[in-house]
Amino acid sequence: MIAKPAAGSIWRQPAQVWAVAFACVVAFMGIGLVDPILPAIAASLEADPAQTELLFTSYLLVTGAAMLITSWVSSRIGAKATLLAGLALIVVFALLCALSGSVDAIIGFRAGWGLGNALFISTALATIVGAASGGSEAAIILYEAALGIGIAVGPLLGGVLGTISWRGPFFGVVVLMAIAFIAVSIMVRGGKSERRAPMPLSAPFRALRTPALAILAVAALFYNMGFFVLLAFSPFPLGYNAMGIGLTFFGWGVALAIASVWLAPILLHRMGRSAVMLTILPLLAIDLIVAGLLVASAMALVICIVVGGVLLGIMNTVLTEAVMESTNHPRAVASSAYSAVRFIGGAIAPPIAALLWHAFNATVPYLFAAAAVLIATVTIALGRRVLTGIETHQADAEEEAEAVLLGDAG
Prior knowledge:
The protein has helices at 15-33, 38-44, 49-77, 79-99, 103-131, 136-162, 168-187, 203-207, 211-233, 235-238, 242-270, 273-293, 298-324, 331-359, 363-382, 397-408. It is mainly α.
């Protein structure tokens, strides 16, 4: 668990730490920002739910694929240039989303947004830790707080702006990301001194040959199906307006952030990583089953969504920490390889859920999600002998921050 710095030291950070932390808040707002306006987009652009869910699919597929090359890119052009490229792409494609007149166009522009997000989130941790002054732990706590604020506030801001128009949240991202771009360009130092040693393009693919990492990646693929059915499909059966959906997923985001930063370390001090995963995954499957059975009750579904946020927050952190210990490859390489595989699950689950809803009823998508989570549980259980290495090391402050970053990225 991250040690607390001396009183007040969290505020004594260079301007560039604050600039990147602000950009992190905005970037992580983008995860839940679209949630409250999914029904409005479907209604305004005459799209069915399956088409609308492709907003998540295009975003996550490109984010996952780009994760395979972000280390290669940043090791050659430097962290600041990579951050700015990511922020600029998000500004451009969020603006194009806001100006779009069809759901197909938004789907395409969300793919470009995913590329920008991959470049930014893969570089932000190294930048903020490298820029910290007077002890990195205070900066990491600030960093985790920024992520938590972004995850929680994103759906709420989406709900507020979505009551004006479905285009509102996209314009909101444009303004905030433009401010972040200016702040990073002015305050973050660049130059050759901050560049990493060039990394081969094949590094993430080689990392996936490690049996333990491969098992965790496959488990995460199915786990992410459950994650994104809960996140991306639930706005439709909830039946709330944009503000109601925003408030619901604000609660989800707060629960997820608290669980990621505080509950997961507490559990890891008492149980091994495999034991935590084999405990939380079945609980998540039960939560999804209950959500499906009680889907006709909006209040019951809200409770299941918030409870799911707690379980997802714990799993995100524990899974990503386990990935760090599963291979001798650099953490950035292992995490990007693992993320590329798990994002596939997040990409395919939302449209499948919408199709199952159309073919059957609103209960079936949650049962599908629960089945996927149980497959992830079985994968971890069958591979537990191979995963013994993930129990041997207690993550330090930077590793926990990376677990929160990469786990909550999707």
